[in-house]
Amino acid sequence: MAFIEVIMFLMVQDPHSFANTHEISINHLDLDIRLNFETNQMNASVEFQLKVASEDIKQLVLDTRDLTIESVSDQTQQPLKFHLGDEKPFMGRPLIIELGDRTVDKVRIEYKTSPNAAAVQWLSAEQTASKKPFLFTQSQAILARTWIPCMDSPGAKVTYNAVVHVPKGFSAVMSARHGQHNRDEGVFRFVMEQPIPTYLVALAVGELEFKAISDRTGVYAEPSVVEAAASEFRDAESMLKASESLLGEYAWERWDILVLPPSFPYGGMENPRITFATPTVIAGDRSLVSLLAHELAHSWSGNLVTNATWDDFWLNEGFTTYIEQRIMEALYGKDMASMIRFLGQADLKRVAATLAPEDTRLKLNLKDRDPDDGMTDIAYEKGANFLRLIELTFGREAFDVYLRGYFERFKFKTLTTESFLEDIEVHLVKDQKEKWQTIDAKRWIYQAGIPASMVVAVSEKFNKRQADVKAFVNDATMPESKDWVTQEWLQFLNSLPHDLSTERAGQLQQHFALDQAGNAEVAFAWFMVAIRSHHSSSFDDLATFLKKFGRRKFLKPLYELMLTQPQTRELAKETYLQARAGYHSISQGTIDGLFQAANVSLD
Ligand code: BES
Ligand code: ZN
What we know:
Elements: H1 3-10, E1 24-25, E2 28-36, E3 41-49, E4 51-52, E5 59-64, E6 67-73, E7 82-84, E8 93-98, E9 106-113, E10 120-123, E11 134-137, E12 158-165, E13 171-174, E14 177-178, E15 187-196, E16 203-206, E17 209-212, E18 217-221, H2 223-232, H3 236-247, E19 255-259, E20 268-269, E21 274-277, H4 290-297, E22 305-307, H5 313-332, H6 334-354, H7 377-394, H8 396-410, E23 413-415, H9 417-429, H10 433-439, H11 441-446, H12 460-475, H13 486-495, H14 502-512, H15 520-532, H16 539-548, H17 552-564, H18 566-579, H19 585-597
Parallel strand pairs: 2-12, 18-19, 19-21, 22-23
Antiparallel strand pairs: 1-4, 2-3, 3-9, 5-8, 6-9, 7-8, 10-11, 11-16, 12-15, 13-16, 14-15, 17-18, 20-21
Helix pairs in contact: 3-4, 3-5, 4-5, 5-6, 5-7, 6-7, 6-13, 7-8, 8-9, 12-13, 13-15, 15-17, 16-18, 17-18, 17-19
């Protein structure tokens, strides 16, 4: 077997891609994208070099979804025959290109995106702070194929160049180094020289301003947001230094943060060189920056060393959540790290109780399912707790050496859960087999539920908040909260009994004005309380919150809870009908599902 064949043979078949990655490899994309803000479409082309494993291979198969393919040609500009296969839910359609008997080493595809392309949100002028249209992409997990025909599988890593044509007055950023821009003509050029999975190819266009934080970090945001963002994120450079001393050299040269308009469906997205972030992370007091630590951690776990398939998602998110906590500890101390771990474990227990047992395994089986189904707190929190147990069992020093070696050994590659297990036995466990057995890694990875060996997080501050909850519930004693950090507020609110009376909820609102909490996490935790306690005078502010932010982590629990209660069912519907058009398709899909499950029609 030729070398390339061996490599391809070793590649894992990804159940979420049609691409024939085992027969042909593509290492680089050349993109040219023209944005049309009138029709909400991209007119684009992509060109790439092929490496074909053997002469018998006559077809190239790519992933597409909702794309109009206009033409396909080879290196001599000769057209190539192509057709689109049948549509499969969430997978899209395979694009099958006939290579014929010629040697085809270059393919060029001209195509158009749909206005409904799932990865792309086109915001109208009213939906932004600058009152100008805005566009951003969100490709994880399998949405890159809705704006680029490609081998949309995490193992098919590519470098890329892009030319983006935007209307006058707009700026573009991508998950790549800036090249030669011509702002007058609205032409922006980008170069990504390190191989990345396609889910990390990202683009945002709007009225953007930049403010430096250090010589290798800074923020992009709409002009009215950029100052607040730069101030909120002023620890970015220290975070980066702390991460490097834990994990080894930062591979991506720069770390910038793009603050998106409020409809961004996630808290953050780890696009290389430029984290995309929700504006709800700007609390005014840096109290939510663990989100930045998380996205930064992905620069190693996820972006450098990538899950081989979405069944191994915990390798991305579990490692990242573990590292996030280590970065937070390095910057803000052990107390902060324990609180974050504690809140994580509480989420883990809550979520595990609602999932089907098989979805609480670290190693998932998402074949024939939308990978989004596997994107739960299990990967994040069960994964992080598994690694924490390994750290405590083998000692931090040894584990840190292992971590650095892990990133060095697998950088720019992908990894399955099974290869991780082999690697850790060779490089950490070695002859300490008894220690390893106490962990029972296979129990963590292949079995459902939360193992009893999970090391329970303890926070003295949280013990006090527990006592505060008791006193407040018993006789309306108001807690002394002036020194509380955000995490203590969250713990206090999350620990209130679910049958808290309307009267008690009213007393809280009166004392702390939580309806107007400027901190979106605190506001969210409070609205959950207000809904459960039927505190109806909070509902106007609740509806305003739901209409303003598109972050799914907030929307989903709020709508879900509102739909379970007769008092708020109508409000949920009314609010969603007004808000839906402003949400990203990712959030729309999830919330549509909630209404369907609750049998509430949206007509
Ligand atoms: N990579 C994820 C976001 C993601 C996961 C997008 C799966 C699409 C599919 C990102 O790193 C993330 O985990 N974001 C979290 C914030 C974090 C602090 C836990 C989020 O958006 O809430
Ligand atoms: Zn993450």
